[in-house]
Design brief:
86 residues, 2 domains, mainly alpha, 4 helices, flat
Length: 86
């Protein structure tokens, strides 16, 4: 019934839900792997858990800004937007 209400220019919500669930599963899998590897690294005694946590926190908090900056540099339509701000 919902599909009959959608026009051709609207996104398919089932596809968006599948993409969201797949992305959430990938993030969960990678988070578990990261936790496992950081524990193994800490147990080797080369670096403490505090430094590992600080390093990962710094990377994770910098990723959104890095992705936005790279995306703005790659997308050709974004150039006129920042030029208008000058």
């Amino acid at each position: 019934m919902l599909l009959t209400l959608l026009s051709p220019d609207q996104p398919d919500f089932r596809l968006l839900a599948v993409e969201f669930i797949a992305s959430a599963l990938v993030v969960l899998f990678l988070a578990l792997k990261l936790s496992k590897y950081s524990d193994a690294l800490e147990q080797t005694g080369l670096i403490s858990a505090v430094w590992i946590g600080t390093f990962f926190l710094a990377i994770v908090t910098s990723l959104p800004e890095a992705v936005t900056s790279i995306g703005a540099a790659i997308i050709p339509e974004a150039a006129p937007l920042w030029l208008q701000l000058l």
